[in-house]
Amino acid sequence: MNALRRRRKGAAAVEFALVAPFLILLVLGIIEFGRGMMVQQLLTNASREGAREAALPDATADSVKQKVVEFLSDASVSVSPSDVTVDPDPSAAFDNEQITVKVEVGYNEIGWINGSFLNGVTLSATTKMRSERLD
């Protein structure tokens, strides 16, 4: 029995060395997908905030974009106003006209790990609300 133990002395280290890369990859994948889901929810909330701003009578496309950018900036997600689409311009919308606010961001801009599984994926969120402009 003593000879058997001596022969298996390094077996656990070798087995761990073979399994560890897969475990690390699994954990990093879980973290990246979790980050993706978190940012998707933040984009949804930001588009809602922008649509609420757009529904107000004195709103403009620039004020809506600024609201969305500030909301995401507070959550440590950086987007530019060009990533936000407002259609139609709230200042030209009629009463009860639907205003659409769309936010898009590439995953490679917000991911924590370069070269991850989600590179090339675009996350987006769209919200529609009716204008409260009184004509």
Automatic annotation (TrEMBL):
UniProt keyword annotations, A-Z: Membrane, Transmembrane, Transmembrane helix
TM helices/strands, residue ranges: 12-31
A Pfam family the protein falls into: TadE
InterPro entries: TadE-like_dom
Superkingdom field: Bacteria
Residue span(s) of domain TadE-like: 10-52
Name used for this protein in its record: TadE-like protein
